[in-house]
Amino acid sequence: MNTWKNNIRMVVPYVPGEQPKKAGVVKLNTNENPYPPAPGVKAALENFNTDSLRLYPDPDTKDLAEALAVYYELKYENVFVGVGSDDVLATAFMTFFNSKTPILFPDVSYSFYSVWAELFRIPYERPALDSEFKMNPKDYYRENGGIIFPNPNAPTSVCEPLDLIRDILDHNRDVVVIVDEAYIDFGGESAVPLIQEYDNLLVVQTFSKSRSMAGIRIGYAMGNRELIDAMKNVKFSFNSYTMNRFALDIGIEALKDKQYFEDNLAKIISTREEAVKELEKRGFTVLESKANFLFAQHSTHYAGDIFRFLKERNVYVRHFNLPRIDNYLRITVGTEEQMKKLYEELDNYK
Ligand SMILES: *Cc1c(COP(=O)(O)O)cnc(C)c1O
């Protein structure tokens, strides 16, 4: 009876942060950018030729990949474009992590990694970060089937220096090492220049956070041509047309306005530094952040209680019921006004 059930791929899915439907929520729970995308994006949408929707989009995503290559001083063949970095990372897992030896990623890191590993049946191990949530490069000296970590790390906001990444690469020339740079624009040092030196390094970035475009779904990977070609072959074996015509057009527009981009980042960084002080005043310890969010622990109150209190008052932050981090809140840096509302509600908390 019901033996068909034996052949179902049973997985426990990744659970993204809540997207509340009600109005008036101060939404500091999914690391979205509180400011709009570059003004050119709006103009591009208004001028979009809807007749072109009859036609399939460019499966090679050539124009956007070229624009990214110019931006990062790479070549077109060094760039892979996908539907948000989640899609790019999933493709990379499928393409590069096919060893029977476990892949490695930190015990506290992006919780999607273990979900993909389970989905694709990739064995994995999670070396523990130290008590300050820093990586010990020596944990990655052992034999493995590949390495992935976010830098800055999510959900901790901690950024590792390029020296550490170089150290890990020097000890792992025989596997693919992926650095997930979803938050790198908020003050970290990117590993992109190391691509020229290490043919086994893949760097993944996204338009979702620093470019205020989580809703359009654009992510990209950068690496040597053989890595990128291998990812393209996997993509073309699965779905040739992942990127739609809107996204391809708008992505190019978003890259053009450097001034807007930099002003936007500067505002968020300044609000972040202010927020550290405001939270410390209220009894929180805050990890040093190079991202658009803070990871904070209160000296006397349990994070889960503060989380629920804030939520009742329409201030949404993120709380993870996971080992080691269940007494932390992850707070996205919003506008000055949103942050004021957060401080007000924290002051109301008894
Ligand atoms: C947000 C995030 C992503 C995914 O972003 P996309 O919206 O899919 O581009 C990937 N990695 C980390 C660490 C993130 O925080």
UniProtKB/TrEMBL annotation:
Protein name (record): Histidinol-phosphate aminotransferase
An example Gene Ontology biological process: L-histidine biosynthetic process
Cofactors named for this entry: pyridoxal 5'-phosphate
Gene: hisC
Domain spans labelled SH2: 260-350
Catalytic activity: L-histidinol phosphate + 2-oxoglutarate = 3-(imidazol-4-yl)-2-oxopropyl phosphate + L-glutamate
Taxonomy of the source species: Bacteria, Bacillati, Bacillota, Clostridia, Lachnospirales
Example of a GO MF term: pyridoxal phosphate binding
Coiled coil, from the record: none
InterPro entries named in the record: Aminotrans_II_pyridoxalP_BS (IPR001917), Aminotransferase_I/II_large (IPR004839), HisP_aminotrans (IPR005861), PyrdxlP-dep_Trfase (IPR015424), PyrdxlP-dep_Trfase_major (IPR015421), PyrdxlP-dep_Trfase_small (IPR015422), SH2 (IPR000980)
Associated pathway: Amino-acid biosynthesis; L-histidine biosynthesis; L-histidine from 5-phospho-alpha-D-ribose 1-diphosphate: step 7/9
